[in-house]
Design goal:
It contains four helices and six strands. By secondary structure, it is α+β, with helices and mostly antiparallel strands. It is elongated, with a radius of gyration of 27 Å. InterPro entries: SBP_5 (IPR039424), SBP_5_dom (IPR000914).
Length: about 180
């Protein structure tokens, strides 16, 4: 008579992990008491506290380098943008710009007029030269980012023009 076959390592690992996982899921299922479906009852309530865990932490407060989600969560709360995406309507609205940009026929050049009262947190006025410098730091004329070098287009410092292709409006509203 031959000995009984030994379970393979894969089978042992599968069973060893599946049984505790099933037990843990069953423990999370709630009671099977008096007919409750597990769903909340009554009208939805506004307010309260939502606790959210982001498994990665932010790594920089430098906006041109902040293109990853945890950085955006912090940077978006301490910096302003040319445009703002309204979370309720999902439409773009002016923020530092006075209006949505003028767009040329080929839709590859966008011209913004900046608010005269826009300032940095220390009170220094924001002008077109500042916007140009920030976009050039961000895009560095890198075609892979679909941004080319931008330019200030008026002497008063309130006009700014940049060219771009796909995703450019996402960059100015920071919807990345």
């Amino acid at each position: 008579m031959s000995p009984a076959p030994r379970p393979t390592r894969r089978l042992a690992l599968t069973l060893g992990l599946s049984v505790p996982a099933a037990a843990a899921l069953a423990a999370c299922g709630g009671s099977s008491g008096s007919g409750g479906s597990g769903a909340a009852s009554g009208e939805p309530q506004q307010g309260g506290t939502l606790t959210y865990l982001e498994p990665q932490t932010w790594s920089t407060l430098y906006p041109p380098a902040g293109g990853f989600y945890p950085n955006g969560g912090v940077v978006n709360n301490v910096t302003d943008r040319l445009l703002y995406q309204n979370p309720e309507t999902l439409t773009l609205e002016p923020w530092i710009a006075t209006a949505l940009p003028e767009v040329n026929e080929d839709a590859n050049q966008y011209t913004f007029t900046l608010r005269e009262d826009a300032t940095y947190s220390d009170g220094t006025p924001i002008d077109a030269e500042n916007v140009v410098k920030n976009f050039d730091l961000y895009g560095k004329g890198d075609p892979a980012r679909a941004l080319t070098v931008s330019e200030a287009i008026c002497e008063s410092g309130s006009g700014w023009s940049g060219t771009g292709r796909s995703g450019w409006m996402s960059v100015v509203s920071n919807r990345v």
